[in-house]
TrEMBL record:
SMART domains in the cross-refs: AAA
Pfam families to which the protein is assigned, alphabetical: ABC_tran, TOBE_2
UniProt family annotation: Belongs to the ABC transporter superfamily. Spermidine/putrescine importer (TC 3.A.1.11.1) family.
EC identifiers of the protein: 7.6.2.11
Protein name as catalogued: Spermidine/putrescine import ATP-binding protein PotA
Entries under SUPFAM superfamilies matching the protein: MOP-like (SSF50331), P-loop containing nucleoside triphosphate hydrolases (SSF52540)
Catalytic activity: ATP + H2O + polyamine-[polyamine-binding protein]Side 1 = ADP + phosphate + polyamineSide 2 + [polyamine-binding protein]Side 1
Organism taxonomic ancestry: Bacteria, Bacillati, Bacillota, Clostridia, Eubacteriales
Presence of the UniProt keyword Transport in the record: yes
Quaternary state and interactors: The complex is composed of two ATP-binding proteins (PotA), two transmembrane proteins (PotB and PotC) and a solute-binding protein (PotD).
Organism: Clostridium neuense
GO MF term (any one): ATP binding
Annotated ranges, domain ABC transporter: 7-237
Record bears the keyword Transmembrane: no
Its biological purpose: Part of the ABC transporter complex PotABCD involved in spermidine/putrescine import. Responsible for energy coupling to the transport system.
Length: 348
């Protein structure tokens, strides 16, 4: 029976001089999955991608592709292709010749090359662009040529290293959906690298959050956003209000000297914890009816909501609300049990 896992990274470590870029990383990627490596600059995302592609060699650990170790297999012999941020198109070739490049290296018959290119250009909505110079194309069109060139070789795994980074915001959002649709149509495994949280949440089946060469959390976009495992993930994915609290017992937490019902369990009695509350989950009320009270210190309109900063117990909380607030006014806030997330303190 064919394994559901297409690539398995086992105990991968990579150092540059004294800098450990990847620290004993373990990651299994399933077939037909859109998986995103997400994290800040320098966290090890691109190094992980380059190790899978064969452009880098790990100092320790194994790369298992379709149940075979490929550490010593050169890039051109791996059934893996990469799309880079700068696309690396051949400017002296037209669209057709760019897409045909890998097929010609394989010495396929010209008739077969023509059929494959026709199918692939239709897939990426570039029919009729065969004779166009790549320099005459928009950023989004160039990206689709790069994707077509990679996919026409029928890789089992496609690596994408921040391929949307050079696009303007509107086009970037359009291409996010387009890339996801292409992946679904073809059923090919995509490993996507980005530092953009919204991009990862929009496109991914699975997100891998990295920091300093260590995986912080693996999960669906919903899990990563709603159930962050630690402070780093909670702060990196979206905006969070994080306060110190005490887990009194299952389903009951205390912070700011007030007991709140929650939906978390499995903590020790009176265990010190971090409490996470997302800005959009906070309900504003009159001062008298709020479980907590605070003073509005700033209000900024963000298009779909107001970002309201409120000083509560000498800390500034961020609240997202569709209703305007007045700077200086005293307000109350309420939080429902489902909107309180409890995290264990990080080990020091």
């Amino acid at each position: 029976m064919e394994s559901d896992i297409i690539i398995n990274l086992k105990n991968i470590t990579k150092k540059y001089d004294d800098n450990t870029v990847l620290n004993n990383l373990n990651l299994a990627v399933r077939r037909n999955e859109f998986i995103t490596l997400l994290g800040p600059s320098g966290c090890g995302k691109t190094t992980t991608l380059n190790i899978i592609a064969g452009f880098e060699t790990p100092d320790d650990g194994k790369i298992i592709f379709e149940e075979k170790e490929i550490n010593s297999v050169p890039p051109y012999k791996r059934q893996i292709n990469t799309v880079f941020q700068k696309y690396a198109l051949f400017t002296h070739m037209n669209v057709y010749e760019n897409v045909a490049f890998g097929l010609r290296i394989k010495k396929l018959p010209e008739k077969q090359i023509k059929e494959k290119i026709k199918t692939m250009l239709k897939m990426v909505e570039l029919e009729g662009f065969e004779k166009r110079s790549t320099d005459s194309l928009s950023g989004g069109q160039q990206q689709r040529v790069a994707i077509a060139r990679a996919l026409v070789n029928e890789p089992k795994l496609l690596l994408l290293d921040e391929p949307l980074g050079a696009l303007d915001l509107k086009l970037r959002k359009e291409m996010q959906l387009e890339l996801k649709n292409i992946q679904k149509k073809l059923g090919i495994t995509f490993i996507f690298v980005t530092h953009d949280q919204e991009e990862a949440l929009t496109m991914s089946d699975t997100i891998v959050v990295l920091n300093k060469g260590i995986i912080q959390q693996i999960g669906t976009p919903e899990d990563i956003y709603n159930e962050p495992k630690n402070k780093f993930v909670a702060n990196f994915i979206g905006v969070s209000n994080i306060v110190e609290g005490t887990m009194l017992e299952d389903y009951k937490v205390n912070f700011y000297g007030i007991n709140f019902n929650c939906v978390d369990k499995g903590f020790d009695k009176n265990e010190k914890v971090d409490v996470v509350i997302r800005p959009e989950d906070i309900k504003i009320s009159d001062k008298e009816t709020g479980r907590l009270q605070g003073k509005v210190v700033s209000v900024v309109f963000r298009g779909v909501h107001y970002e309201i900063k409120v000083e509560i117990n000498n800390a500034v909380w961020i609240i997202h609300n569709t209703k305007h607030a007045i700077v200086g006014e005293e307000i109350g806030i309420n939080i429902f049990p489902d909107d309180i997330h409890i995290m264990r303190k990080a080990l020091k």
